[in-house]
Amino acid sequence: MAISNKFSLRSLVKISRPVNLIILAFAQMMTAVFLVETNAYGQAIWQGYNLYLLMLATSMIAAAGYMINDYYDVKIDYINKPDEVIIGRTMKRRVALFYHSILNFSAIGIGWLLAPRMALAIFIAAFLLWLYSNQLKRLPFIGNFTVALLTAASIWLIGFYYQKSELLVLTYALFAFFLNLIREIIKDIEDRDGDRKHGCKTLPIILGFRNTKKVIFAIAFVFVCSIMIVTFKINNPNLYAYFGGLSILFMIFMYKIYIADRKQHFTQLSIYNKALMLAGISSMVFL
Length: 287
What we know:
By secondary structure, this protein is mainly alpha-helical.
């Protein structure tokens, strides 16, 4: 029994993607401290418990999303990443659904404690994550767009709740959106073997390997233009300098995408993408 409990806890932690949750919490904390800074009463928001409740609710929704995604993708994951399959091995399917439901309802409850509009926003996010795992993931582009949009919303949610620094928060929400959109398409390229076998219609399967890369380059172009427009509107010299340096790393990233042609290359690109995300979030310190 002790061994079973140990593996159950380990499986619960692993299926929740703790590294991704830490990055998510870090992005929200940085947004709160350096972009929003104070609440309507002029108090530093990091000193109040509402921020931490919001971060907790967001992390719970994200963890629930990972669980339901693994629940629906068991057969695909046995092909794409057989060594990482949890559901059906160290966690029963009904247990995964139980944790998923508990996390979602708890997060919505926390949202209601903060404000009814937050409960509604969290409910919509939970529904979209379920819909993505159940249907949208198997469709070209729309699934990628949905996940990227929800990632951006996790940053936007801080500004939405406190209703401050909307333009600055929007800048970083756009940054998160485009980087995650590229990352999701890269993951589709990496997982195309299992996706194809189980009837998914992702971009690499519909358009082919090379044309999907062209889509990534087109998104990157729109990304750079969007960030430049918003950055010039903010007109902060520190932001110019930091994003200028970050653009060099981004160009290296795009070159790596251009030359990538093996599964392990795209796995490495996904990690590089997370590093770019952390570097971009860190620029909030200079604002």
